[in-house]
Design goal:
Length: 413
Amino acid sequence: MNNSADLLRELRIDRSAPPPPSRRGLWIALAAVAAALVLGGIGWALFGREPAPEVRTATAVALGGGGEAASVLDASGYVVARRMATVSAKITGKVREVLIEEGQRVEEGQVMATLDPIDANAERELAAAQLGSARSQVESVRARLAQAEAEARRLSTLVAQQLVSKSQYDEAVAARDSLRAELLTAQRNARVAGDRLRIADIGVDNTVVRAPFAGVVTAKAAQPGEIVSPLATGGFTRTGIGTIVDMDSLEVEVEVGEAFIGRVKPKMPVEATLNAYPDWKIPAEVIAIIPAADRGKATVKVRVALKQKDPRIVPDMGVNVRFLEAAPAREAQAGPRGVRVPAAAIAQRDGAEVAFVVAGGEDARVERRALKLGRTLGSDREVLSGLASGDTVVLDPPPALRDGDRVRIAAAE
């Protein structure tokens, strides 16, 4: 009976025990686990991996044929005038009038200033008076000589008739010859007085300061009432009236390092860019390479002629120049060959020259490409194969950068 009672108790339903889990609850638990895994993966993707490196980029530019020039050297210099003069008076004197202003254009021979002519005029008046006196002396001697010649002729007739003594005739001849010599002396004195007058005229003309050539006044150095002198005497004495620059003689002087002077040749085409007008490309040409080096700076001076004249070009302006090399004729027939990129975009990987091309938008990745290089074009390199025009390349790629890596493009400065 006990066994039967125990069996009956085992068959009784226990209402206090929890119900077995249902299938719906199982699915909810699985979904929660999956969501946790997804969120964990996203968190690791955002915060667990290393951030993409920030890189600078540049764009590959096509090199065209047809005689297109490529830069072989970049340098900087200044605009200079080959014809420039600080105009001064030839004599020391007080400025009476200044007839120029900065920026004014003057023609050759135009009066720039005048000095006080009192002393010069006095010298001229004295020389003119001396010339008049000398001429009067000539006329007086000439008159006495005419009388003496007549007296000598009359006595010559009388002595032939033995009406006067021979000694009396000889005295008349001697007087005539003396007056002839005196006339020559008076005439020479008159010529000397005339020369002295011409010198006095030059002295008066020296009080007028004229432009030696046509140009533009860049500096006005004197004012009325100041003392000017062609010699530097110190104190408050000026040495010039003004400075004139011939704007047609402007050129560029560039100092090129000794290590790169071999790239520069006479008659070489040049592209000049003024610092004041960076978007204005001025065609130019190498005039000459000065055959002397600066020991202190290890540079050689190069003269560059500007082929375009413009009022915007003024002396002492800063200029950046690109020495160009014309493409060979065979390249002109073959058409475009390769691209040019900054030398900083080329890296060494496994003994080969490569570049990393950026592709993609926000999730930018790099693609490693093997390159075939050409000429060195200043700070750039010619790439014959491996890149196309318009490709964006990484500058100074980090040593750890690999094909397919993500990168962040630095904002332009």
